[in-house]
Design goal:
globular, mainly alpha, Glycosyltransferase
C-alpha cells in the first residue's frame, strides 16, 4: 500500500473509538465490533504479516526539500514506515481483538512517544496523524505509561502548531496560506480530535475556516494551483483540509466540507473545481509554469509525477475521503478505484471496486 493510500486509510480510521469516558466523541467513523469473523479480513492479515517488525524511531525526520539519497531523506522515509504500520495494527486489533496486535500497536507508539522531538515542519510531520489515530483506536487498552507518553507528545504537537498558526494570523506569505498551512491545520485538527480537547477542537475549527478563506478562491481554485501550475499540489493541499474537516466533524452539526468561509469559498467548491480533471473530462500538463525551483529539480531528477499529463488516479485518496461525508462523490471515488483494506474496515460505506 503506497503512502498516499495509507494517508487515506489513516484518516478513515481516525475515530473508530466511539467516545471518551465522558462520552465526548473521539472520532467520526464506526468500526465493527471485534469478532473472530474478522480474523481473515485483509487488514488483519496484512497486520499479522508484520507482527515481528520492530520500530525504527528517530528523534527528527526530514524529507521536505530533499531528493532521495540527500541528507537524512532515506533514513527518514524508512522510519516513517512505522507510522502506518502502527495504525494498521491498531485497526486490525479493533477488528479482531487479537492481543498480539494490541501489543504491536503499543510497541510502536511507545517507541515513537519516547523518542520523537517535534520540529513543527508540517510537510515532514503530516503523516504523524497515523500515530494519533492509532492512539485513538487503542487508547483505553494501552499500558498507562504508553498512553501517557503518547498523550504528552500529541498535546505538545497540537499546542505547538496552534501557537504557530496564531503567530501567522493575517500573513500573506505563500507558505502561510498554501499547502504548508493546510498540513498545519490537519496536524492541529487530528491531534485535537485524538485528545478530545474542546479548546483545541474549537481552535482547529476556527483555523480551518480561516485557511479555506485564504487558500480557496470563490471559484474553487486554490493558491497552490496558481503557484505550482500542478494538480498534484491541488490534491496535496485539499487532502489535509478534508482530513481536518472529517476529524472535527463530531464536534459540530455542520458539514465542514460544505461550510462557507468569509469569502464564500468552501472545500466542496474546490473538490468540484477539480472534479472534471479527476473524471478525465479535462487534462492538465503539470508544472509547466511553476514558480517553485524545487519542482524543476525534481523534474530533472526524473521523479514521477513532476511533469507530463496529470494522472486522475492521484485524486483517488482525496475523493474516497470526501465521499465519507458527501455521497455525491461516491461514484467518482468508485471509478477511481482502489480503496485500501483499512479504509474498507473503518468506512464500509465508501464504495470499493
Amino acid at each position: 500500500m503506497n503512502t498516499r493510500h495509507f494517508m487515506t486509510a489513516a484518516l478513515l480510521a481516525l475515530a473508530c473509538v466511539a467516545a471518551h469516558a465522558d462520552d465526548t466523541p473521539r472520532w467520526w467513523c464506526p468500526l465493527a465490533t471485534p469478532s473472530p469473523a474478522h480474523a481473515n479480513d485483509a487488514v488483519v492479515t496484512e497486520a499479522l504479516a508484520h507482527l515481528d517488525a520492530q520500530p525504527h524511531p528517530m528523534a527528527h525526520v526530514h524529507t521536505q526539500g530533499l531528493l532521495p539519497h540527500q541528507g537524512i531523506h532515506d533514513a527518514s522515509d524508512e522510519a516513517e514506515h512505522d507510522w502506518p504500520l502502527a495504525l494498521r495494527a491498531a485497526v486490525a486489533w479493533r477488528l479482531s481483538g487479537k492481543p498480539e496486535l494490541l501489543q504491536q500497536t503499543a510497541r510502536y507508539l511507545d517507541a515513537w512517544a519516547n523518542t520523537y522531538q517535534p520540529d513543527f515542519n508540517p510537510i515532514d510531520e503530516t503523516n504523524l496523524a497515523n500515530l494519533f489515530q492509532a492512539y485513538a483506536l487503542a487508547r483505553d487498552a494501552l499500558p498507562a505509561a504508553t498512553r501517557n507518553a503518547m498523550a504528552t507528545l500529541i498535546r505538545r504537537i497540537a499546542e505547538g502548531y496552534l501557537a504557530r498558526l496564531q503567530a501567522k494570523a493575517g500573513s500573506t506569505y505563500i507558505n502561510d496560506i498554501n499547502n504548508w498551512q493546510s498540513h498545519r491545520i490537519k496536524l492541529l485538527a487530528t491531534s485535537a480530535a485524538a485528545l478530545g480537547d474542546p479548546h483545541l477542537v474549537a481552535a482547529a475549527r476556527e483555523r480551518l475556516m480561516i485557511q479555506v478563506a485564504a487558500n480557496i478562491r470563490p471559484d474553487g481554485s486554490t493558491v497552490d494551483f496558481a503557484q505550482r501550475d500542478a494538480l498534484h499540489y491541488v490534491t496535496y493541499d485539499l487532502e489535509p483540509l478534508v482530513q481536518a474537516a472529517l476529524a472535527l466533524s463530531p464536534y459540530g452539526k455542520d458539514n465542514l466540507l460544505e461550510a462557507r468561509s468569509a469569502t464564500g469559498s468552501s472545500i466542496a467548491a474546490a473538490l468540484d473545481w477539480l472534479e472534471p480533471y479527476a473524471e478525465g473530462r479535462r487534462t492538465h500538463q503539470e508544472f509547466v509554469h511553476t514558480s517553485e525551483p524545487f519542482d524543476i529539480e525534481r523534474q530533472k531528477a526524473g521523479l514521477k509525477g513532476y511533469g507530463g499529463t496529470w494522472d486522475p488516479y492521484n485524486s483517488a485518496a482525496l475523493y474516497a475521503q470526501a465521499a465519507v461525508s458527501m455521497p455525491k462523490y461516491r461514484a467518482l471515488a468508485e471509478r477511481l478505484g482502489h480503496v485500501p483494506p483499512v479504509l474498507q474496515a473503518c468506512a464500509p460505506s465508501v464504495p470499493t471496486k
